[in-house]
Write a structure and sequence with these properties.
Strand content: 15-25%
Distance between the termini: 45 Å
Helix content: 40-55%
Strand order of the largest sheet: 6-5-4-1-2-14-13-3-12-11-7
Oligomer: single chain
Order of helices and strands: EEEHHHHHHEEEEHHHEEEHEHEHEEH
Length: about 425
């Protein structure tokens, strides 16, 4: 996978090879997080998009027809009891037939008016005879309006909304807002192109469908809110998305095969997480998520875990409930924050193992020489050093560039060690 960007946020241009693990290092405010956010926004907006648009179109048709039927039925003069009985049966059948008809006529001219007229007559609607023609006309007009909105226009609006949520309405270049932005994603010689101007997606073209999920993790404290279902609307988009998958309030059998495969496949990872956490995550009778510890008689509320343990608990939860699947995208923004150097090494090993076993696409930003070195060492130990790419983000005036330093990562170590060298110079009075 290769990502090319021009004039996005603070980044002037960049070409990033994303094959296995991609590590991006650099000083603060150099655009490191932009790459991960871009990938998250692309995958979230375009994932199963055709299916989502069809469902939304059906929902819109359902809503329009329901309101229209209610308005005309109320004018027919039938009793409330009779109205409720007949309306419930008729509306359901009518809406189902209209949606099925529209879906079956995608390749040809949709004669909505004739079909609506025949369907209403066939189902013996309770619309008053004097209102029948008006109902047919209004119903046809509203349906045609929805049908005539192209999938591409809908998808363009979806992309705009997702990117603006993730980037807080600042996807366009900060150094010149009226300049056009271009994003190109290439997967196995097939392309996805996105174009923006003034924070609006102006056009896009895709040669493939995105079927996998992307997870963006930059805040281990999100596990504190797993028991608070009402806070999601106030969270930033990446956290709210992550929280939905951490809680995964669905059928008990949903994802069960993924969960079993994970447990069978990842013994080493589970053993490592089990040792670090000292227990398993459970939901108690009050609906609160806790760590059932091997050391204590009572479960520990996740809010009371150390910040470092929360980082490991978050990953373990995504694995054990089947949310994180093979070939998904996992974006970790400065995962070493709040971790002791010893745990930074453990987290780096966890990342390498996850990539190896799951074939994940992983983007990692970091400031830590410990963490960087651990990725380098463990990827070599597990014979996958050729699946790790390194980039250095640097400012040049008001804009940022990302440089490929895979073959000379000493450039990153130097950037990270320079502040310590300055302290040494001060301590010993050298210049």
């Amino acid at each position: 996978m290769q990502l090319k960007i021009n004039n996005v946020a603070k980044i002037k241009e960049a070409t990033i090879n994303i094959d296995g693990i991609t590590v991006i290092a650099g000083e603060n405010n150099t655009g490191k997080s932009t790459i991960g956010k871009l990938l998250f926004a692309i995958y979230s907006s375009m994932n199963n998009m055709e299916q989502k648009i069809q469902q939304e179109r059906n929902n819109e048709i359902d809503q329009i027809l329901n309101l229209l039927l209610q308005n005309y039925a109320m004018q027919s003069g039938i009793s409330q009891v009779e109205y409720r009985r007949r309306y419930s049966i008729f509306s359901r059948k009518f809406i189902e037939r209209v949606i099925e008809f529209i879906q079956s006529e995608n390749d040809g001219e949709v004669n909505v008016e004739d079909y609506v007229k025949n369907t209403v007559t066939d189902l013996e609607a309770f619309i008053a005879p004097e209102d029948f023609d008006d109902f047919i006309s209004e119903c046809t007009l509203k349906l045609k309006t929805i049908i005539n909105i192209s999938d591409k226009k809908v998808m363009t609006e979806v992309v705009t909304r997702w990117f603006n949520k993730v980037f807080e309405n600042q996807i366009s270049p900060l150094f010149e807002e009226e300049m056009k932005s271009e994003i190109n994603l290439n997967i196995k010689n097939k392309k996805l192109d996105l174009y923006f101007k003034e924070n609006v997606c102006t056009d896009w073209d895709s040669e493939f469908n995105i079927l996998h999920q992307a997870f963006y993790i930059d805040n281990s404290f999100v596990v504190d809110y797993m028991s608070d279902r009402y806070i999601r609307s106030h969270m930033k988009t990446t956290d709210a998305h992550l929280l939905r998958h951490l809680c995964k309030e669905e059928d008990i059998l949903n994802g069960i095969f993924d969960t079993v495969l994970v447990k069978d496949k990842l013994d080493e990872i589970y053993n490592m997480l089990g040792e670090l956490l000292g227990g398993e995550i459970i939901e108690n009778q009050d609906g609160e998520y806790c760590l059932k510890s091997n050391e204590y008689s009572k479960p520990i509320n996740l809010k009371n875990l150390s910040t470092g343990l929360k980082s490991f608990a978050l990953v373990k939860r995504l694995l054990e409930n089947g949310s994180l699947k093979e070939k998904d995208v996992l974006i970790l923004d400065e995962p070493e924050i709040h971790l002791h150097p010893e745990w930074q090494l453990a987290y780096a090993k966890l990342i390498v193992l996850l990539q190896k076993e799951f074939d994940l696409t992983m983007i990692i930003t970091t400031h830590s020489p410990y963490f960087l070195d651990a990725i380098d060492v463990f990827s070599a130990e597990y014979e996958m050093a050729d699946r790790v790419n390194y980039y250095l983000a640097e400012n040049e005036g008001a804009v940022s560039y990302l440089h490929d330093v895979t073959n000379h990562i000493d450039a990153i170590y130097k950037k990270l060690s320079d502040p310590m060298q300055r302290l040494e110079n001060i301590r010993y009075g050298s210049t």
